[in-house]
Each structure stands twice: as structure tokens, then as C-alpha cells.
From TrEMBL:
Gene name tied to this protein: LOC109004850
InterPro entries linked: DC-UbP/UBTD2_N (IPR032752), DC-UbP/UBTD2_N_sf (IPR038169), UBTD1/2 (IPR039869)
Superkingdom, natural source: Eukaryota
All copies of domain DC-UbP/UBTD2 N-terminal, residue ranges: 36-133
Protein name, entry field: Ubiquitin domain-containing protein 1-like isoform X1
Length: 134
């Protein structure tokens, strides 16, 4: 995120434009980027009813193996934090990590280098046929 002078009045505007900065400091190139508003995934049903414990196990297995699918660990970590947070915090996390959101429900994202990150719905929300433990 950069602060830029947007008009002749020299007022500062916060921008979600991408910028490249020199080592000496100062932004030198701006390209307008779009910020996709994150939303909850649409309701979905697991092929068979599962318990909360089974769902948590699936999620843990996915996050433990996700970095092996490619991409950068810090982006996977940011996506996990975003998946486990409320929508407002999720938005802030993906924006600050430089994640490019293709699908507003976070199922398909990219990093700034073009690596693709696919998240299954079960890490983003609970199925409609979730069975309560106990």
C-alpha cells in the first residue's frame, strides 16, 4: 500500500495501487490494481456428513501439506490466517500480503509472482451437513 499525491492540491490519498520502490526510497511506478472484496463461500455440502472434529482434521491436513503444492510459505501462512479470520480482518490480511484474489471467496488466489493458490471450501467455511460432536 502506498501513499501518493493524487492531485494538484497535494492532498494525500491512500491507494491500493501497486508500486515499486527504489532502495533509496520513494515510489517510482504506479499501476492501478483492483481490490476484490472478500465474501463468505456459498453454502456447500460435504459428500457425506462429517463431524467438527473430522472437519478440523481435514483442515489441518490441508494446511500441513499446502506449501508442498508450490508457492511461497508466507503466502500460504497469510491465506490460512485470512481463512480463519472474520471478513474484515481477512481483507486486510490478503491486501497486506499482496495476495491477488481471483475468486471473492478465496478459493483461487495468486501471489505477485503469478503462483496460483487454490483453497478448498472446507478450509473456508463449514458444510451444511456438519454433525456436532458429542
Amino acid at each position: 500500500m502506498c501513499w501518493i499525491f493524487a492531485d494538484q492540491s497535494r492532498r494525500l490519498f491512500q491507494s491500493f495501487w501497486k508500486c515499486w520502490c527504489l532502495h533509496e526510497g520513494g515510489c517510482v511506478i504506479f499501476t492501478k490494481g483492483t481490490v476484490k472484496k472478500i465474501r463468505k463461500p456459498k453454502p456447500w455440502k460435504h459428500p457425506q456428513p462429517i463431524t467438527k472434529t473430522q472437519l478440523m482434521q481435514l483442515r489441518d491436513e490441508f494446511w500441513d501439506t499446502a506449501p508442498h503444492y508450490g508457492g511461497r510459505k508466507e503466502i500460504w501462512d497469510a491465506l490460512r490466517a485470512a481463512a480463519e479470520a472474520d471478513l474484515t480482518l481477512s481483507q486486510a490480511i490478503v491486501e497486506s500480503a499482496g495476495v491477488i484474489v481471483q475468486s471473492a471467496d478465496l478459493t483461487i488466489c495468486y501471489d505477485e509472482r503469478g503462483a496460483k493458490y487454490e483453497l478448498p471450501k472446507y478450509v473456508l467455511s463449514e458444510p451444511t451437513n456438519l454433525i456436532q460432536d458429542g
